[in-house]
UniProtKB/TrEMBL annotation:
Glucosidase II beta subunit N-terminal domain mapped to chain residues: 15-148
GO cellular-component term (any): glucosidase II complex
Signal peptide: 1-22
Entry annotated with the keyword Lyase: no
InterPro entries named in the record: Gtb1-like, PRKCSH_N
PANTHER family recorded: EXPRESSED PROTEIN, N-LINKED OLIGOSACCHARIDE PROCESSING
Pfam families xref list: PRKCSH-like
Domain of life: Eukaryota
Protein's UniProt name: Glucosidase 2 subunit beta
Biological process, per Gene Ontology: N-glycan processing
TM regions (residue ranges): 166-187
Keywords, alphabetical: Membrane, Signal, Transmembrane, Transmembrane helix
Amino acid sequence: MGNSSFLHFFCFCFLLVSTAFCISHPHLHGVHPLDEKYYRSEVIKCKDGSKSFSRDRLNDNFCDCTDGTDEPGTSACPAGKFYCQNLGSKPQFIFSSRVNDLFCDCCDGSDEYDGSIHCPNTCVMGGNVEYRSVNYNAEGTDLVSSGVNKAKTGVKLEESVYNLTALKVAVILQLVLVILGVILWCLRRNRSRRRRYH
């Protein structure tokens, strides 16, 4: 197998693997990482228990569930919530009425995914830091965090794991692209050397 044949084979394998990854892990707009498993089945139940819907009706811009379960990534349901991942900053939920409304609500711009407007990523890198005012009682105990932090710890841990996984995927893809670039550079260099000697 020659150098150019190897390069074509390598590019074909890379495209095949990346396509298979995208098909097996489709991106669901507006879905919290903890809810991704919930949306994987073929028939999904509305979270309020009112009815069920098939997976092909997920984010189809038609409100099937009154609570907005079927439309996490569109503005079709008045009661819907859209999840902003905001990688590197604080994740948040916004009202789904703000999705694709030509205004950047998520700092990562994920709420304006239809391409009508370009939202620059303004998330500040450095982790999911939440700034809030703290209220103390007479004994100096933080009233807000004493009960709430215990409940949030598990969710924050899983969000951190999800964010780290997304970061790993991005680093691996960049590494593959760098390796591919080095291979292309070496092949060109070898061709130019052969031309000099022939």
